[in-house]
Structure formats: structure tokens, C-alpha cells
Write a structure and sequence with these properties.
Blueprint: H1 3-27, H2 33-63, E1 75-85, E2 88-97, E3 100-105, E4 114-118, E5 122-130, E6 134-142, E7 145-150, H3 154-167
Antiparallel strand pairs: 1-2, 1-7, 2-3, 3-4, 5-6, 6-7
Helix pairs in contact: 1-2
Amino acid sequence: MTRKTWLTTVLFALPWTLFMIIYNALLMDGISTRLVVSTVIGGAIAGFLFSLSMEYFANRMIKGIQIETHTNEEVVMEAGANHFKGKEGVGGKLVLTNKRLIFKSHNYNIQNHQESYDLASIRNASATKTLGFLKNGLLLQVVDQPHRFVVDNPTDWINSIYTQQKSENVF
């Protein structure tokens, strides 16, 4: 299992477990060791199952997004991503080719879109934190316009973008 799966498990299981301990304590007129142990076990199982199901459905949705490339393009890397459009984190797929970076949203967004950035137009790429502590942000300076994404392993994306720019003599 990935670090992301464990993080999702914990972030879901902890509040759910605390809520259920309080709820069950009120329902049963007090807290017992048995109540706490069974609720902690149930919360851990629920968190784990929630995390696995979210990962499964996200991967299934990402695989369904088809991005067309030009005949002279080769896909270098691709993964699920969120592209911030205003306050909405639009979910979809991010694809890096040897010529450009392409984002295409899935159909379950308000602001569906597809955008493409030539590698020559990307002036800077940097890793950022989302929510102030998650190291999954990718900030691209495209000409004079910033574009923010949420991706797994943003440093891998940055290194791959710069590698492709160098191999295509963009600098």
C-alpha cells in the first residue's frame, strides 16, 4: 500500500472513530473498554475500506480519460491530478509528453476543460504544499500565468518537465 492510501485511511478513520465512540457512549449510557476497542477496530476497518474504494474508483475514472497526442509526441508520464480553476480543484488526468503538458478533466466537474501547455511556455515549475502541509502541489509559471495542480510526487513531475525541456532544446 502507498503512503497516500495510509494517509487517507487515517484521515477518515480518526474522526469517524471519535464520532462513533461519542455516539455509542451516549447511546449506551457510558464508555466501556469493550465499546472503545470495538469502535477503534471498526473505525480502522472502515477507514481502510474507504481508502481502498476511493483509490479504486479514482484509478478507474482516470483510465477512462483519453487524451490524444500528436504523431510526433511520446507520453513521458501520466497520472490523476487536480487543476485549480478559481476555487475549484478540477479532477482529471495530467499527461507530460516530449512536446507539451496536457490536462483533461473528467466529466464529474463543474468546470470541464482541456488545456495544453507547450514545454517552451513553461518558465518555472515548483513544488508547493496544499492545505499548508500536504506536499502534493505543483505550481507552473506558464508565460506570465500561474497554474496550480495537485499531483502525487510533484518533484518527479518537475524533474521530468525540465528533462524534456532540455532534450527538446527549449532553453
